[in-house]
Amino acid sequence: MKRLIPTLFLIVASLCFMALATQAEDKPAGADLFKQKCSMCHGADGKGFAALKTPDFTDPKWQRSLKDKDIIETIKNGKKGTPMPPFADKLKEDEIQELVNYIRSLNSEKKK
Ligand code: HEC
Fold first, then answer.
1. Which pLDDT tens digits describe the chain residue by residue (112 residues)?
2. Minimum CA distance residue for ligand 1 atom 34
3. How far apart are CA 33 and CA 28, in angstroms?
């Protein structure tokens, strides 16, 4: 019985450590948001769909063509005359920023 308590303590401690470790190696926060709210039109990999005319977020040329401000603007207000919907009332300011960070991380130039 005397040995049981330290053993239990060790088990609990290592479980906590494992939980923390899996959190730390998590993808960027924007990745989950993107998967939930954007990937159906922009593709899980962000490369877009020709049929929907969604841009290829991994294309360095596309990345250079827009400033962060433009991307934020599009996410908030959508693009009139296209299926791109506005998200201003669905996402918080910091969630939009996380999405911008995530979209920037898709740039194929950065992966090299
Ligand atoms: C219903 C489909 C749909 C959904 C959902 C959607 N988009 Fe789009 N998005 C589009 C389309 C279509 C375009 C291309 C618009 C065009 O022709 O310029 C686009 C364009 C964009 C652009 C490029 C804007 C530009 O100025 O070139 C960004 C950035 C973008 N979407 C981000 C997002 C993000 C982030 C989400 C999720 C929060 C999202 N979209 C969800 C359809 C969608």
1. 677 877 877 778 777 777 766 555 556 689 999 999 999 999 999 999 999 999 999 999 999 999 999 999 999 999 999 999 999 999 999 999 999 999 999 999 876 5
2. 38
3. 10
